[in-house]
Structure prediction request, 316 residues.
Amino acid sequence: MDKADLQQLTTSAERLNTAIQTIGQVILGKDRQIKLALSCLLAKGHCLIEDQPGVGKTTLAHTMAQVMGLEFQRIQFTSDLLPADVLGVSVFNRESSQFEFHPGPIFSPFILADEINRATPKTQSALLEAMEEYQVTVEGETRELPDPFFVIATQNPQHQIGTYPLPESQLDRFLMRIDLGYPDKTAERQLLEGENRRNIIKKLQPVFDKALLRQLQQQVTALHVAPAILDYVQSILEFSRQSGAFEFGLSPRGGLALINAARAWALIDDEKYVLPEHIQAILPAVVNHRLPVHLEAGSKQTVTAAQHIMESVGIS
Prediction:
């Protein structure tokens, strides 16, 4: 789609659907995962992608940044990465006889934290303030991050060599955790026969810019949530805390995450208010990484947290 075609798109839903289709030209057969990642961005959250190497996690981040018209910085997390490599550092300037702060890659609207669980906990913690408060404090001075600000992190499975588990405080900073999985046979054949994905990304036209994205994020915040939907969310929160099925329940931040993600999903669906199916659509991505399932000794986990909640909690 060229610039003239993009200018003819008048509604938010049209542009959002075009963005999903454009990203889908690179990430084949994964429209739901693309929609979830886009919902995360619209809800001013952050997204964690956990999957095997080589299924397109990094490619999805590159493509999203291109399509959304955001400056992109990739941080490759390794065991020797230091917090200063992420946040920045002050360097003494001999001419001015003063220290000058050199911003790190975190001062960019779109951050890819690649293989985040290969860094030590000390370096992982450098993202905590940035992801929650949209600011960083370095050497006693607090600096604001750009608006919009979005972190999309990739994580290798924890059983792989050289990984550090993300603590609950870090996991909770991610609005969603998604996985891409292997492509189906048709999509994989198209991938094998087609052009290199990196070449396709370079040819893509941005569908949004910063101003348009901020407008959409404001629309998400303003989307109506009826009292019945709030009752449904509170029932989910109460069940997670009192059922005994989980090691600990959802926090109030988890409840806000459900509401914000559902609002973003509803906006993409061109709805004027949140419906129960919007809550259910985003529930797995929002709660599964927040709710460790309580297992008896010797038992195996057969259902996810979201599946157990949806089977147990109904809307009145």
